[in-house]
Amino acid sequence: MKKRVALSLLLIVALALTSAHLFAGGASETSGPVKIRVGTMPNHIGVPIQYAAEKGLYKEAGLDVEVILFPTGAPINEALSAGKIDLAGSGMASVFALASGDTYWLGDYVKTVAGLGVYVRPDSPVLKEKGKFPGNPNVYGSKETVKGMVILGALGTSDQFEAVAWAQGFGLTGNDFQMLNMDRGPAVQAFKMGEGDAIACGGPPYNYELEAAGFVLAAGLTEVSGMDIADGMLGRKKFIDANTEEVEKFVEITYSVIDELFDSDEMLADYAMGFYNKNGKNYTTEMMKGEIKDKDYIGRKTISSPEYRFGSTMVGMGGFYVTDGKIEPELEKNIFASLRPDFLEKIYGIKITNFTN
Amino acid sequence: MNRKLFLHLLISILSVIAFVGIWHLFTAVLRVVSVNTLPDPMKVFTSFIKKFSNPNPDGATLLQHTAASLQVALTGYFYALIIGIPLGIMMAWNKYIDRFVRPLFDLLKPIPGVAWIPLMIVIFGLGIASKAAVVFFSAVVPCVLNSYTGIKQTKDVHLWVARTFGASHHQKLFTIAIPTALPHILTGVRVALGAAWVAIVAAELLGATRGLGFMIQQSRGIYRTDIIIVGMLAIGICGGILTSILTIISNFLLKGRR
Amino acid sequence: MNENIKVRVTNLSKQFGDLKVLDNISFDVLQGEFLCVVGPTGCGKTTFLNSVTKLYEPTSGEILIDGKPVDLQKNNISYIFQEQSTMEWYTVEQNIEYGLRIRGVPKVERRQAVDEVLEMVGLKGFRKYYPRELSASMVQRVVIGRAFATKPELLLMDEPYGQLDIELRFKLEDELIDLWRKTGTTVIFITHNIEEAVYLSEHILVLTNKPSTIKKRITNNLPRPRNVIDPEFIRLRNEVTELIKWW
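Output (structure tokens, whole complex):
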């Protein structure tokens, strides 16, 4: 009898021990400053956040920030959805998080001006066709040459967007070609080895690698979509509503880093290269220079200009994905509702206009 | 008799009803987590129905994905059967073949089929061949093992009967050993099917353009948990149907036995 | 050489490692004879039969059938084993025609032979049944049917009725005698049941304990049908019993 009691007690303790961590994820710790778990990627999007964290800028402001790195935006969305991270610096994939209605968009902070687009091999039939893309005569390809292609790239990212936008220009849809889902590094390797007919490039440094291998940019993202790709900051509604003050501080510090880095390419290059290489990428000074040319950080100067429209990428992308069927039409309104320019308005003391279709 | 059957059926259905009920309670009623994190049963059901005709968000309908998965899985599975079963039989029947094959087989046996994926992609590329190969490696092991065990069940007395009638080695194999092994072989065939189906989904998660695993992978990170669950359901249902078909076939083949 | 000798066993010995089981056995079996081999339990009766059919290779000695060494491909031998030996994956019909199939007998002839045998062993209505659907006695009849279907020149039986109850055994024994008389096949029947041996045999070979040698060969001329309570029957039974006890 005693044995049985002891055994059941042991069992209960074991259960409690093993299951405790399962539920610890969502809740914040009780004492001390609120812990902010921020997910981002070891690329240009992660640079300002990682920099601020590493230099102790968040800590100085009394924030307890933990940075968690992810390979792409898709797992960041999963982590947000599961409540394992609170805020994120992320790319295109954010639009799905916004459409879910569970997150807010806090601000765009880095824009890609070049390097994104679909690359093909020099002998591709696509390159024999030019001028058939409505609105941009520089884009290669035609309805016939694009239809049925196998395009390598990471799904749910700008890779897919640029490929679909390209196909749509010829009156095709995302279902008229095959997108072979691969992470970006492996995709480049596979394309070099002869897999697929084209590759949707996710920007630096992959565009340099593809160009060095002699592949040709058939359709640049901006050319085919007429859209800028701006990455930015988002977070879980529940967390932001409960910790508005801390989130505001976080946004303020991150943007202050951007304003600082934006002023000094050299400093950015030095820091970013170290950050990338520490995370398994092999960046050369050349590549870094190229990236700085292809990526513009968005700080006070851009945001204060009267032409600036808050959340343009997310709203534009949302519309695109609704057309493409990736986002259900009734969810599009969630994207508009998720835009929260008020943090930046308060930080910079200005009035910001939201992007509208 | 009939009442008992009805009762058993009722109990079986109850577990499903209870499961769906609790699911409904925690999602639709209590909303413990966001609908994006875990959709309620009704939402999943409507998505399931819609997915038959709607290629969004992943580019193909449920039936197209299912057909793609089935095609690859059954290709690899078929090769696993026609290679694995004879190999297992030969290993059990001929000790020289056993000695020759066994070290290699024992070495490769513990490697899960899924672990073959990266290598197969390097060798065969991203098409049907690499995934079929992964399915093959997953399915061939239970085929070999069960065929081997089955042949080893052969009773001496049956071999003696054959021998006194003057049966050749060959005749003993085909009239005694293989029929003896048949129930085991068929078990292997069923286990292999399960393994094949698991492997294809895993292979599609890693590199594919179509298939149920691909559909699930596509729906990750874009807040379409409903489609993920639809994919899981489709995998479960297909696996169930395939297993039932095999059960019918093996019951037919094992007619007259226990 | 005597034309009537079906099987000639000369100086047969069998040894498993250090264990000598059969020691220098020599005897003849006549054409069409019903020979019963009896001996104390564990005296190597089964080893003896298995050596005849070369399931075991004899250590020394020679076994000739019709003056030639045993060749299972050529000699038409049927063997009914002690263990249950129907093949559960075959129907009654398929079990019975098994030996014929192995020997490549054409289908039509097989069919005819099976019909005959089914009639003989009384399983006519059970052609399509599987062994597990039959009773113990019917299963035993299937085995006997399979053995007779090939019309064997030599039928070896190793305690085929050991597991059956008395009533059933008597019935099957009578059936066996019937079949033997109809077919005229030579039978070597091993049993530890003396009554059974006296009931069935024309000759009884009594073996000694291990290492077995032949104790005595007894001729059994009791008229058939035999009666187990006939004084002559009892006398012969007692004689054999004494021989077995005497070591």
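The mean pLDDT of chain C is 87.
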